Amino acid sequence: MPELALLQQVVERVRPLLGQGKVADYIPALASVDAGKLGIAITTVEGVTLGAGDYLEPFSIQSISKVFSLTLALTLYEESEIWARVGKEPSGHSFNSLVQVELESGIPRNPFINAGALVIADLLQARLGAPKHRMLEVVRKLCGNERISYDRLVADSEYQFSARNAAIAYLMKSFGNFHGDVNTVLQSYFHYCSLQMSCADLSRAMIYLANRGVSLTGERLITQVQTRQMNALLATSGLYDGAGEFAYRVGMPGKSGVGGGIIAVIPGDMAICVWSPELDKQGNSLAGTAMLEHLSQELGRCIF
Ligand code: DON
């Protein structure tokens, strides 16, 4: 069990990095976030949460929501139905690239790039009467916080600037790998991305990835094997074209979002969430990655 002092030390060690990255600015609602925020929280499989810095402040989880979407899809579909429509390989391209979608006949490389997450959102839309409501229910229960909500401003703003995601969805539709109404699915996808959660909330919600598929309340979400598989996909694709560098420096399965959050997992032990809004060139939190690197070294823990 890490000491609180270690988490505080990790936060202070990366503070000098502030100013080196760039806050996401493709929508005004994200560009206006205070770039100086720094937070870290861990939750152990015993259910203890510790945090330092701005770890209780909610932020836009963005692509971290793709973990919840895939998990929910695994509870609704046969695995073969999911993997017929999306791959399991790292893309080596930016998270919102169209290039491979065209070259690879509309089958996205993995469920964590935008194309893959849009296919997963399409699957959820097809099987759930009210997918946005269901997602909120699942996430609230996972972290035990009924106040979790969508940020309508962020969701609406994403929808206003949705040309690239719409292009990806329509391109996949042209290959027959997108079944629903593009605008309806985009609305759901942007809402999932707009979930507002703190580092504490996210480290608690993600504990099932460290606990063989079992949540904080003792409920099984996915099987033990599916959890191992999810962690493998996170380790190879969770940080997009920065996945290799992240594996090298941090050595944990992880998922980032352009809001500056990153979740990481030490299987059997703990789920971690860091937050710092300034991003590196790949769209991953710059100081967030550094916090995880320090923590991994100080704990002497990684999966390799
Ligand atoms: O769809 C998008 O492009 C954004 N809502 C989410 C992208 C994202 O978080 C990528 N992560 N680093």
From TrEMBL:
<dbReference type="Pfam" id="PF04960">
    <property type="entry name" value="Glutaminase"/>
</dbReference>
<feature type="binding site">
    <location>
        <position position="158"/>
    </location>
    <ligand>
        <name>substrate</name>
    </ligand>
</feature>
<dbReference type="InterPro" id="IPR012338">
    <property type="entry name" value="Beta-lactam/transpept-like"/>
</dbReference>
<feature type="binding site">
    <location>
        <position position="189"/>
    </location>
    <ligand>
        <name>substrate</name>
    </ligand>
</feature>
<dbReference type="InterPro" id="IPR015868">
    <property type="entry name" value="Glutaminase"/>
</dbReference>
<dbReference type="GO" id="GO:0006543">
    <property type="term" value="P:L-glutamine catabolic process"/>
</dbReference>
<comment type="similarity">
    <text>Belongs to the glutaminase family.</text>
</comment>
<feature type="binding site">
    <location>
        <position position="165"/>
    </location>
    <ligand>
        <name>substrate</name>
    </ligand>
</feature>
<keyword id="KW-0378">Hydrolase</keyword>
<feature type="binding site">
    <location>
        <position position="258"/>
    </location>
    <ligand>
        <name>substrate</name>
    </ligand>
</feature>
<feature type="binding site">
    <location>
        <position position="114"/>
    </location>
    <ligand>
        <name>substrate</name>
    </ligand>
</feature>
<protein>
    <recommendedName>
        <fullName>Glutaminase</fullName>
        <ecNumber>3.5.1.2</ecNumber>
    </recommendedName>
</protein>
<feature type="binding site">
    <location>
        <position position="63"/>
    </location>
    <ligand>
        <name>substrate</name>
    </ligand>
</feature>
<feature type="binding site">
    <location>
        <position position="240"/>
    </location>
    <ligand>
        <name>substrate</name>
    </ligand>
</feature>
<keyword id="KW-0007">Acetylation</keyword>
<comment type="subunit">
    <text>Homotetramer.</text>
</comment>
<dbReference type="GO" id="GO:0004359">
    <property type="term" value="F:glutaminase activity"/>
</dbReference>
<dbReference type="GO" id="GO:0006537">
    <property type="term" value="P:glutamate biosynthetic process"/>
</dbReference>
